[in-house]
Each structure stands twice: as C-alpha cells, then as structure tokens.
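User: My instructor asked us to take a sequence, write out its structure as tokens, and then describe one feature of it. I'm not sure where to start. Here is the sequence I was given:
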Amino acid sequence: MNITDGDASKRMWGERRAWMVHTQLEARGIHHAGVLAAMGTVPREAFVPRDVEERAYADMPLPIGWAATISQPYVVAHMSELAAVEPGDRVLEVGTGSGYQAAVLRELGAEVYSIESVPALADRARLRLEALGYDGIHVRAGDGTLGWPEAAPFAAIVVTAAPTEIPPALRDQLADGGRMVIPVGPLHIQELLVVTRRGDALQTRAIEAVAFVPMRPPMAS
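Assistant: Let's start with the prediction itself. The structure tokens for your sequence are:
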C-alpha cells in the first residue's frame, strides 16, 4: 500500500515530536509521565505560523505575531510539571498565545480557562483548538491580571507572560492547596515562581531565571 503525502507528513511530525521529548525534555530532567505524554501528543507544528513551521520542535521560542511568542518546548513542559495538574482540575492560564500550553494542560486532563490580552490571538487560538478537536478549553480576550473570577477557585494557575508583581486577583483565585506558576520581574529577565496556597497563607518558591514577554493590558478588538 502506498503511503500518501498526508501519512508521510504525519509520520515525519510524529518523529520530530518524539525526538523533542527525548532530547529536550527527558534529557533535561522532565520526568512526569503525563507531561511527557502530553508533549508527545500535542502537534506543536499546528500552533506556529507556516513560515516558522520547520522550527516547530526546535529548542527555542518562536514568534506568533503581535509581539508574542510560543515558548520553547522545555519551558512549556517545565511549567506544566511544576503546576502538578491532576485530571479533573480546573486550571487558569493567563496568556493564551497560540493555544499550545492550553492544549498541553487539556491533555493532562484539566478543564482550562485561558485569557489572552490580544483579541486576534484569542480568536485564532480558539479556532485552532476547536479545529484540532479540543473541548474543555475556554478562551476569551481580556485582562489577565483580573483572572476569571466566575470560574474560580483554580487548582492551578499558569501564567505565560511576566508581570512585575503577582496580580492580587490571581492570588485570590487560587484554591487551597493550589499552585500558581508565574514569571515575575522586569523586562528581559524574570524569576519563575511557584506560589502555593495553604489556607490563608501563600508559600513562594523561586525556581530559576527566565525571560518571558511582559504582561500587557488588553488590546481593543
């Protein structure tokens, strides 16, 4: 039986995805079986612009327009692992971007609420996720610093753009025992933090230096 172009392309991307999981994630200390499976399942090539498609599985962030990026695979996996998402968890993502991180969280079994400050990116991500068959991901354009109060509290909050300080609304929307993974700091260099709620107290653990795009106010439609 002849292999169609579609079959060959699917096999090629599958091989690149498996290579990425082995060389970029497992080799750098990502061990969570669910995260590795999710990263090996979500078709990253579908979340990047066509002109950078060949670099979809490179160990680097890629531009997606509107001064936004899709984070490098390791960062997505690392933040997902730190969030310690369990099936059935309600998770808030701040900074939808391409929708890739939301898809990974959904593969982990989470119900995902994702906010994007750029309406055009939110619309594109929503359509892309729907086209790929992802349900259980709710996307809207808005101010990420305000969270999604009507869906709170959240077992995990994953923030993919960097504020200069942790927004109070996000602290308030974290469930007891929940974890927020967030880069905090000035432009170009921030600190990745894991904030865990224990009753009325918040415990903060610094993980490493990172560089994310800054959190910005919502754009007009």
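For the description part of your assignment, you could build on this observation: The helical segments are 5-25, 33-39, 73-83, 100-107, 119-131, 168-172. Try explaining in your own words what that tells you about the chain.
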